[in-house]
């Protein structure tokens, strides 16, 4: 599928990889789903404890001003893997479960980078970046024609989209895992299949009720977005999703090989529907959402333990982050709002998932690599996921082909906590596809259309018909709008933003 850049022969690459393996680390990029800046105890959470993640943070670097590229999943993950801002490409909105692969054939990814440098590459867990060549035309009963293998991943075990969207099956190496030929799969995002119950028509079948939307096909007693028929033994049980993701990650780590690995490991926690394994029930005062955070911490424990048992922990760079800001009610009546109490999943920031405010893209970011990242480092450097491509290329000594990672800049010293220098600017994309700007202490939100508060999620979006300017040094919460006080600065930042967008 991909038009490859000019590279050395595979045999030369293999020899180079073997010679350099001792000097190059494994890289584990662990991306949580909808985990907020304030959801980890090492970031100030008081009503939930995440001791495993906290331990890695205390023995590595913890970033306080890291930003995802978007406040929703699909565009954020697209940018993380391509080093290209999502607003530069149409089709990077939140993807349906039957979306075709959203990457262009020529787009270079983090997986390409590591694979061509002699690494084994894997994508495991939540995907939400499309599968197959065309939207709505996948053969879920055979082999998909376009998969993550076409963008550099040697191995994949994936949820096609999110847990609240059909199809509710895992995809392994282009096929439905544990496929059940007696229950062929049909998927539609247009209409239901005759005789199939939905959350709207048969609420008595549900163990978790929807709050808005999410009332279509029922799988495992939970109604979803979209319609699905069949699946049989291949259908997932929500309670087992985290363990299944962890088990496949551990299996990949455990494979005997002389190559280092790059793993893009994406947990489903804490995305809706939140229905953690039974062993976490009643363990959190914040109910299902709190239990999902505990489950996330347990996944980290399982994977880190596997690295240690294989003797790989000292030469594995572990990055833990989230794809965007948090949301409490995102479609199910799990009482997250009620049980959160004084817990603010966005920490000290305003807004959350979908939002232009800092809470939409300010995410936890922890880097752990023994002997290379100083224990107890806290970095306040303004940083962005967009720079992972160029920085990790520098880390492994790989040359980035011309045109690859176009918006990514090399900030390896910042990534390893050795420099606290700010990025010159950070741009982020909220759900309405406007583009916001951070330059040092200043946050600029241009005029845009949309609801000031999303009625479904009760999150302040930041969408206003006039520009907004905030001094985050004075108020991290973006509580005082200053564009009328500093009109020249607002105008100058708008010009900077226009230039970035047009590049």
Automatic annotation (TrEMBL):
Keyword Hydrolase: yes
Signal peptide extent: 1-21
Top-rank taxon, per record: Bacteria
Segments forming domain Sulfatase N-terminal: 25-397
Keyword tags: Hydrolase, Signal
3-oxoalanine (Ser): residues bearing it: 73
GO MF annotation terms: hydrolase activity
InterPro entries named in the record: Alkaline_phosphatase_core_sf, GAG_Ulvan_Degrading_Sulfatases, Sulfatase_CS, Sulfatase_N
Modification(s) after translation: The conversion to 3-oxoalanine (also known as C-formylglycine, FGly), of a serine or cysteine residue in prokaryotes and of a cysteine residue in eukaryotes, is critical for catalytic activity.
PANTHER family noted in UniProt: N-ACETYLGALACTOSAMINE-6-O-SULFATASE, SULFATASE
Family: Belongs to the sulfatase family.
Designated name of the protein: Arylsulfatase A-like enzyme
Species the sequence originates in: Alloprevotella rava
């Amino acid at each position: 599928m991909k038009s490859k850049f000019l590279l050395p022969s595979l045999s030369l690459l293999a020899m180079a990889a073997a010679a350099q393996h001792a000097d190059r680390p494994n890289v584990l990029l662990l991306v949580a789903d909808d985990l907020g800046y304030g959801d980890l105890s090492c970031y100030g959470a008081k009503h939930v404890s995440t001791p495993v993640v906290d331990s890695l943070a205390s023995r590595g670097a913890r970033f306080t001003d890291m930003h995802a590229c978007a406040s929703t999943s699909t565009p954020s993950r697209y940018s993380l893997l391509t080093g290209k801002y999502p607003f530069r490409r149409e089709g990077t909105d939140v993807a349906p479960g039957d979306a075709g692969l959203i990457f262009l054939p020529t787009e270079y990814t983090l997986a390409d980078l590591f694979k061509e440098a002699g690494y084994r590459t894997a994508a495991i867990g939540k995907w939400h970046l499309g599968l197959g060549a065309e939207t709505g035309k996948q053969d879920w009963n055979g082999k998909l024609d376009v998969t993550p293998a076409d963008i550099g991943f040697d191995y994949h075990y994936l949820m096609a989209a999110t847990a609240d969207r059909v199809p509710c099956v895992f995809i392994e190496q282009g096929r439905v895992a544990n496929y059940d030929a007696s229950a062929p799969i049909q998927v539609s995002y247009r209409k239901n299949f005759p005789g199939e119950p939905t959350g709207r028509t048969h609420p008595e079948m549900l163990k978790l009720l929807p709050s808005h939307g999410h009332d279509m096909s029922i799988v495992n007693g939970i109604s979803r977005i979209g319609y699905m028929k069949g699946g049989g033994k291949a259908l997932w049980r929500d309670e087992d999703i985290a363990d299944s993701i962890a088990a496949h990650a551990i299996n990949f780590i455990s494979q005997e090989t002389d190559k280092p690995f790059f793993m893009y490991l994406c947990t489903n926690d804490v995305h809706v529907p939140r229905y953690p394994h039974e062993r976490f029930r009643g363990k959190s005062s914040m109910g299902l959402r709190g239990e999902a955070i505990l489950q996330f911490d347990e996944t980290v424990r399982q994977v880190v333990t596997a690295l240690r048992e294989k003797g790989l922990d000292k030469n594995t760079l572990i990055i833990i982050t989230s794809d965007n800001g948090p949301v409490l009610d995102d479609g199910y009546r799990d009482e997250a709002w009620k049980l959160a109490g004084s817990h603010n999943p966005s920490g000290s920031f305003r807004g959350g998932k979908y939002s232009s405010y800092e809470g939409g893209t300010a995410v936890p970011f922890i880097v752990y690599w023994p002997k290379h990242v100083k224990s107890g480092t806290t970095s306040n450097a303004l940083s962005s996921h967009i720079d992972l491509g160029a920085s990790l290329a520098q880390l492994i000594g790989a040359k980035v082909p011309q045109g690859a990672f176009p918006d990514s800049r090399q900030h390896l010293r910042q990534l390893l906590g050795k420099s606290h220098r700010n990025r010159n600017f950070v741009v982020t994309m909220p759900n309405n596809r406007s583009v916001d700007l951070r330059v040092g202490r200043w946050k600029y939100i241009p005029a845009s259309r949309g609801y000031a508060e999303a009625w479904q999620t009760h999150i302040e979006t930041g969408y206003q018909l006039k520009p907004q300017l905030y001094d985050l040094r004075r108020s991290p919460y973006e509580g005082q709008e200053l564009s009328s006080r500093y009109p020249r600065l607002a105008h100058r930042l708008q010009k900077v933003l226009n230039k970035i967008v047009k590049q």
